[in-house]
Amino acid sequence: MHPLDNEQRIKALDEHGALGKLGCATDEIRRNHVFINGSWRDCDLNSVSAEEWSRRRERIVARREESGTST
Is residue 3 within 8 Å of 29, Cβ to Cβ? Predict the structure, then answer.
């Protein structure tokens, strides 16, 4: 695995990263779950509650509407 792969995954899961900003939490890490490019990789399983997703989605949609960005 390229060293940046793991670093980018960690940043995405951090509370300020992409998944963290969406309210995701890591539920499970499956070790050696998938074989890609000649090596076994771990798989992070994440979730977000329906209530949290609804709140976050409303904020995302409102920001896009304010900036004129479509979905």
Answer: no
Task: Decide if 12 contacts 46 (C-beta within 8 A).
Answer: no
How far, in Å, CA of 9 to CA of 45, rounded?
12
> Which position has the token pair 């890609």?
36
> Are the C-beta atoms of residues 53 and 22 closer than 8 Å to each other?
yes
Q: Where does 1-71 have alpha helices with state H?
A: 3-13, 18-21, 50-67
Q: What is the pTM of this model?
A: 0.52
Instruction: Give me 48's structure tokens.
Output: 């977000």
* pLDDT tens readout for residues 42-68: 888 889 899 988 988 898 899 889 988
Distance CA 6, CA 29 (A): 13
Residue with tokens 């920001």: 63
